[in-house]
Write a structure and sequence with these properties.
By secondary structure, the protein is α/β, with parallel strands linked by helices. The chain is about 50% helix and about 10% strand. The chain has 13 helices and 7 strands. It has a 5-stranded parallel sheet with strand order 2-3-4-1-5. A two-stranded parallel sheet has the order 6-7. The protein is elongated, with a radius of gyration of 21 Å. The chain starts with 5 loop residues before the first helix and ends in a 15-residue tail after the last helix.
Length: about 240
Amino acid sequence: MNTTGIATIAPLQNVSLIYAALERAMNRPSHLPGMVTAYGPAGWGKTFGATYAANKKNAYYVELKSAWTRGAFLDAVLTEMGISEPGKQIHQKISQIAEQLALSGRPLIVDEIDHFVEKKAVEIIRDIYESSGAAILLIGEETVPTKLKQWERFHGRMLDWVSVQAPTIQDAKVLRNFYCKDVQVDDELVELIHEKSNSSVRRICVNLARVEEEAVGMGKKKMGLKEWADRDLFTGDAAPRRT
């Protein structure tokens, strides 16, 4: 997994929360469960946190896709592990994954777990956990903890539930340092970007990139509220149709 920019992303509050959750699972006493779930609204930086944790802890990382079956998920994990000859049956694939987790001591991160909640396929992850004892970090939307209650054996293996937080102005300033390398963006403009981005790390990144692009086009090395003037920022809403 690419580590470019990881040190810059680290100070984001949700990156720190997710990293700490995985670390607790990895360092837990042997008698405690080893799964943790980070959850919250889309756009709040959960995948940023998962990517950082995966790089720092050398975790196997898989992002679930909506169309995946259980077999497709297991094949993706095996590919991430570098296992070139996966078993033909589901139980064989689970055994291979569990063995690799146990032997390597590396954790597993599963992003977009909501897809398996909707398909009622989460027990396959519990099977992997029970067979390996590995630390497993799940990433999902804000309703995931409630939805997982219907699987008590799965729910009961959870060491911690981590509710991610809305990105702060400080988060926006950290992202400015990462996305605006060639242009100095004043704090006041960053605060406006944070406000207009509606609690979305993705939109903050889009707007910072937009500011830098505009500044380069204007031949400016510094952008503040005065320079930005009445230009639009991306809020997530589609622009009205021009007549």
